[in-house]
Amino acid sequence: MACGCFRPASTYAARADADAEARLPVDEPSRERVSGWWGVLGVIVPIVAVAAAVVFLLLGYVLGNALVVAGWVAAAVGAVSLLVGGAGLLGAAARGEGPAEGEADGPGELGRARDAWRAALAERGLVPFLVAQANMRQV
């Protein structure tokens, strides 16, 4: 019996792809995209460099002197990239525009959607979980 009630998953995937393409920033200037990369590099490079420095220094003091030098070089790269990345993030934040007055949680479709999401999260997620945990504690 084919009632037409069920649609294949590919239909939903195609719809999700079309929705995602509709939200792509087509006319976004390249300068804004580049500042996003500076933000990514400002976060990832210091983390990787400091992690490498810790590993190199720990192994260097156990195994030999060459890794100690590599560890201090990685620590210096991490410190410099942290300063440069932090300055880049601050510059991107200074250039960026904040939300318009009343837009963040004010009236409007976004505010109503956020309130509906919070109510649904509480009703369907948090409350059942807390009730189940309370029932487990009583048993």
Keywords:
139 residues, single chain, 4 helices, mainly alpha
Characterise this structure.
The chain is mostly helical and 139 residues long. It has a domain of 63 residues. Helices cover 78% and strands 0% of the residues. The protein has 4 helices and no strands. Helix 2 packs antiparallel against helix 3. The protein starts with 8 loop residues before the first helix and ends with a helix.
Sequence-ordered SSE layout with sheet pairings:
Elements: H1 9-22, H2 30-63, H3 65-95, H4 109-138
Helix pairs in contact: 2-3
Keywords: Membrane, Transmembrane, Transmembrane helix
Transmembrane segments: 37-63, 69-90
* Computed structural class: mainly alpha
Q: Globular, elongated, flat, extended or rod-shaped: what is the shape?
A: flat
Arithmetic mean of pLDDT? 76
Largest sheet: none
Proportion of strand residues: under 5%
Distance between the termini: 47 Å
| Count of alpha and pi helical runs | 4
**Secondary-structure element sequence?**
HHHH
Measured as a percent range, the helix fraction is: over 70%
Q: What is the number of E strands?
A: 0
Show unreliable segments: none
Radius of gyration: 25 Å
